[in-house]
Amino acid sequence: MQTEKHYLGGAKWIQNLWVLWFGNFITGLEFSMTMPFMALFIDTLGHFNNWSLNLLSGAAFAITFLAKAIVSPMWGKLADRKGRKLMCLRASGVMMFTVIFTGMAPNVWWVIFLRGLQGCFSGYVNNANAIVATEAPHDRSGKAMGTLATGNVTGTLLGPLFGGFIAGIFGYRATFYIAGTLMFFVFLSTLFLVHEDFKPIAAAKMRSMKTIIRQLKSPNMLLGIFITTLIIQASATSITPFISLFIRQLLHGQGNLALVSGVISAMPGIATLIAAQPLGNLIDRIGAVKVLTWGLAFATICFIPQIFVTNVWQLGFLRLLVGISDAALLPAVQTLMALNTPADAFDRIFSYNQSFQAMGSVVGPMIGAVIASVIGYRGVFAMTAIFEFCNLLLIWYDQKHPYPNWIKKRIANEN
Questions:
Q1: Would the N or C end of the chain have less CB density within 10 A of its end CB?
Q2: Residue 182 has pLDDT above 90, yes or no
Q3: Which residues are registered as beta bridge partners of 7?
Q4: Of all helices (H) and strands (E), which one includes residue 7?
Q5: pLDDT over threshold 70, residue 201
Q6: Which tens digit of pLDDT belongs to each residue from 28-42?
């Protein structure tokens, strides 16, 4: 019987888990160090009215994910043939340069261009998830994915605090320089410490996605997971580009805006960090579908009171509750995909999910920008609550109807 290889005193998959946890941590840190203050940074690059500032901030946020949505299937197909580690190196290496150059941008159009370029080569977190999901034992998959999720969440948690501190002392550009430098260490750790046993799939032997979908246990559930990923991401990012502007409105011009924005932006991450591990264990015990369903119901309830907040502390508490729902939703989605995806299509299906996730980061901020400009920031929370409730109904429907009609008809004809 083949024995499991060990590295640095632990099983290979455990070492990969912690090295990739670090990579996810820095990736989340880089994002949240800069994005809560993107609108404030753009405001320093010109003279904008409220409408144009909202739209430009939303565009700078969304273009990264629009580019990511377009190119992710191409990278996923390449990952099935060349390996996921190479994809992690590609993403971290390019991100290092684009983030640093964003800090040097002379105007908003350079910011938007560089954010789009970053999106074309992104994908570290998704490929890190794929590596861990394929190598972790099935009976520990929920715990492994929950642990990995805490890396990105912890970075997202600390990023606003770290970024707010740096921006308050050295200015907004310094946050980009430091974030880009940290991505260099992610590149090095991934290069030397991640060990992937990858068996390439020849292009001629790759099954078509239509064939793979027909052979899945629940094709409708897979599509539901894709849409769920989109809605989760749209809900999480709908207010992100404007959170500092909303907080400025709640503060009435008083207090340290950068620091308070950082603290409030970090609140969901605090709750997710605390709850991710227990909820990951719960997924292994009762199943990912149940955790996903209750997580969506709880998220719907959490967003409604945010419409009526009157001060930043109320907002911070409610954002903390949102983080608990995120701790249930993100590992549940990843676990469902890991357990229901055939090995020869793993990266392609994960890349499609990444495209839906990226589209959520486009749809959320852009719809949020329009709503914020027309009826105010509170309307964005109302929109998000509606999104989450519709998602809950979709998951309920997919559980009752696992097969789409076109597959039912094809199976009936074959029999």
A1: N
A2: yes
A3: 10
A4: strand 6-7
A5: no
A6: 888 878 876 787 888
Contact 125, 88 (CB under 8 A): no
Tell me how far CA of residue 153 lies from CA of 129, 158, 272, 331, 346, in angstroms: 13, 9, 7, 11, 24
CA distance 207 to 175: 45
Q: Which value, in Å, is the radius of gyration of the alpha carbons in the chain?
A: 21
**CA of 97: how far to CAs of 100, 176, 302, in Å?**
5, 10, 38
Average pLDDT of the chain, as a whole number: 80
Of 104, 96, 108, nearest to 180 by C-alpha is: 96
What dihedral do alpha carbons 51, 234, 359, 200 form, nearest 10°? 150
Tokens 């290889």 appear where? 5
Residue type, 66: L
Strand partners, 10: 7
Q: How confident is the model at residue 412 (pLDDT cuts 50, 70, 90)?
A: very low
Residue that is written with structure tokens 């990952």 in the block: 79
Contact by Cβ (8 Å): 106, 138: no
Neighbours of 213 (CB within 10 A): 16
Tokens of 187: 């590149």
Taking the domain 8-198+206-414, which CATH number applies?
1.20.1250.20
Residue spans of alpha helices (H) in 238-345: 243-251, 257-286, 288-303, 312-340
- The total number of residues written for the chain in this structure: 415
pLDDT at 345: 67
Residues 6+ apart with CB under 8 A from 136: 13, 17, 144, 145
SS3 6: strand
The mean per-residue pLDDT over the stretch 201-224 comes to 65
> C-alpha distances in angstroms, 39 versus 29, 310, 396?
18, 22, 38
Q: How far apart are CA 233 and CA 126, in angstroms?
A: 14
| Contact assessment for residue 338 and residue 280, using Cβ atoms and an 8 Å cutoff | no
Q: Which of 317, 170, 275 is nearest to 162 (CA)?
A: 170
Distance CA 318, CA 308 (A): 11
User: What interhelical angle do 257-286 and 141-170 show, nearest 10?
Assistant: 180
